[in-house]
Specification:
Blueprint (H helix, E strand, L loop, with lengths): L1 H16 L6 H7 L21 H14 L5
Helix pairs in contact: 1-2
Length: about 70
């Protein structure tokens, strides 16, 4: 389990260093542990303040893109 936790920590550190953006370096860091799929343009207008309804809509969009809707 510590092996995966190390990769997750590297990913989170990269997100912090890159102002919350997921760079290609993050993908490369995860490759030894797992495969990742980039979901581009999932959340438009990053700086926009969101209502609870907006957040629910974004969560449902993510769930759909991940193939979790059933």
């Amino acid at each position: 389990m510590q092996y995966m936790e190390c990769h997750i920590q590297q990913l989170l550190d990269a997100l912090v260093d890159n102002s919350g953006r997921w760079g290609v370096e993050a993908d490369a860091a995860l490759l030894p542990a797992c495969e990742c799929t980039r979901l581009r343009n999932l959340i438009p207008e990053r700086e926009k303040e969101r209502s609870e309804e907006d957040i629910l809509e974004l969560a449902l969009r993510l769930k759909e893109k991940m193939g979790l809707l059933g």
